[in-house]
Design brief:
Blueprint: E1 12-20, H1 27-40, E2 46-51, H2 58-65, E3 72-78, H3 84-94, E4 97-102, H4 112-122, E5 128-136, H5 140-156, E6 169-172, H6 173-180, H7 189-195, E7 200-207, H8 219-231, H9 236-264, H10 273-305, E8 313-318
Parallel strand pairs: 1-2, 1-4, 2-3, 5-7
Antiparallel strand pairs: 3-8, 4-6, 5-6
Length: 322
């Protein structure tokens, strides 16, 4: 029967998750990679494609291409775009494999990494395996911004994070269950993988140049990811503004003493218009910045109390048995 691996039933040794968003030009290459994985593992692997509200024909192409496929698969459609990491989480929730991996559909991460990941998990040398990016064939500005972000993030938030960040990973069922027990909106799946602990291994690789299409990860999505990664796992911004506030109070006290002494000695023009304007603008801007940071934390706390689903699934095309 189609879709039944060597383990039988709906259980398989491995699952591979692909988030799909604006990947229509990549579908043929992706399906070639999937076919190679299936042949390598002799059918004992499951493929989970999550269509994250993609506005192109990625989902339709997959459904038509896999209609007569001989391997086990699921195509899950989100009702709208919920974000790449939410799509990966959906795939993880629906994966039945003992070992589960996730990678981007644009194949910028070498598929050979997945083979090495599964090998390490099957040898029980690690519970979570990450790809450690040693280089990337991306535009100069993209490389610069990526290095700057992860350098600051490693220094201030999570020292154990690889210098190039994480785009591809695999884990065993124990680590996966721990991840899925966390139900926080506006969070970072990658940082959650570090937060839960367990034994980790890192496999170095160089990221490939994108062959088809254009990445949907624009500046806005990167900034949102940065904010989620920081505000969900660190109190550094609040501690930082606390110390800035304390330093400001000390400096204000010193300035006040100096001003009073200078006024008594007749060294200050009574008008003080320029000084007054500078103080109002400076402290007003500082107050707005502090309120903005506090607001980010408060908004995330409120979001966690709403109990809304992390995503909504509109339909599932299940090719695990038919």
């Amino acid at each position: 029967m189609r879709g039944l691996g060597r383990m039988g039933g709906n259980v398989t040794a491995r699952s591979l998750v692909f988030p799909i968003y604006r990947n229509e030009p990549n579908i043929p290459s992706l399906l070639q990679a999937v076919a190679k994985f299936d042949a390598m593992y002799e059918g004992d692997i499951e493929f989970v494609f999550v269509i994250d509200g993609s506005p192109d024909q990625s989902g339709g192409l997959l459904v038509r291409a896999l209609k007569d496929a001989s391997y086990r698969y699921k195509i899950i459609f989100h009702s709208r775009n919920f974000g790449s990491f939410t799509a990966i989480r959906t795939g993880l929730e629906h994966a039945s494999g003992k070992h589960v991996a996730a990678m981007a559909a644009d194949l910028q991460e070498p598929p050979e990494l997945i083979v090495e990941f599964f090998s390490m998990l099957e040898k029980d040398t690690a519970d979570v395996v990450f790809g450690r990016r040693t280089g990337r064939d991306d535009p100069l500005l993209t490389r610069f911004l990526s290095r700057a972000f992860w350098s600051v993030y490693r220094r201030l938030i999570l020292p154990s994070m690889p210098s190039g960040g994480v785009d591809i990973f695999a884990c065993n069922r124990q680590a996966l269950d721990a991840i899925l027990s966390i139900e926080e909106p506006n969070s970072s799946l990658v940082v959650q993988l570090f937060w839960v602990g367990f034994r980790r291994e890192f496999v170095p690789y160089r990221r490939r140049e994108r062959e088809h299409g254009k990445s949907a990860w624009g500046i806005g999505r990167r900034l949102r990811y940065m904010m989620d990664s920081i505000f969900s796992f660190s109190d550094f911004p609040i501690v930082f503004i606390l110390w800035v506030g304390i330093a400001g109070c000390v400096l204000s006290l010193v300035f006040a003493v100096i001003t009073v002494v200078a006024r008594l000695l007749g060294k200050i023009d009574p008008a003080g218009y320029t000084t007054l304007v500078l103080l109002i603008v400076g402290f007003g801007s500082a107050i707005l910045a502090v309120q903005g940071i506090l607001g980010c934390y408060l908004w995330r706390a409120v979001e966690n109390t709403k109990s809304r689903p992390l995503r909504i699934i509109s339909r599932i095309v299940d090719g695990t048995s038919a």
